[in-house]
Amino acid sequence: MMGIAKGQDPQAQNLLLNTPTSIAIVIPSICYVEALTTLEQKEKYNEDFLRRLDIQINEAEPDKTSEKSRLLRSLLNQSRVKFLDRINDIKERFDTAFNQLNKDKK
Fold first, then answer.
1. Which of 3, 31, 47, 55 could form an S-S bond across to 8 if both were Cys, CB 3.0 to 4.6 Å?
2. What single-letter DSSP state applies at residue 22?
3. CA 95: distance to chain centroid?
4. Which domain of life is it from (predicted)?
């Protein structure tokens, strides 16, 4: 599931979203628990990374005279936005995979 969420296995995502009616995908419950635990751990890592990134953005803030400092702030802010976009993509794919697999269980 994490491979699908992180975009590492496009074929698995395609199979999951376009599962033929003649096939039933079965995943043990422990795999759901493991995937949720992994997602929680990644969220903590991401929060820590964003916190450290914010520190670096704030460190570059006081230097109003340096073009390099302004450029660095801009690039770090852009990186923050793209990182958040990536996190949202992963969460969306995870939710889609999780919901699709749960739908198929019923």
1. 3
2. T
3. 11
4. Bacteria
Helices 67-105 and 29-60 pack at an angle, to 10 degrees, of 170
102 touches 75 (CB < 8 A): no
Q: Which two tokens stand for residue 11?
A: 């074929």
What's the length of the chain? Answer: 106
Report the C-alpha gap between 98 and 17 in whole angstroms.
11
Any residues with CB less than 8 A from the CB of 12 and at least 6 apart, and which?
Answer: 3, 4
3-state secondary structure of 27: coil
For the chain, what is the radius of gyration of the CA atoms? 19
Residue whose entry in the numeric block shows the structure tokens 């340096």: 66
Q: Name the pLDDT band for 1 (thresholds 50, 70, 90).
A: confident
pTM over 0.90: no
Comparing CA positions, the residue from 91, 97, 4, 101 lying closest to residue 39 is: 91
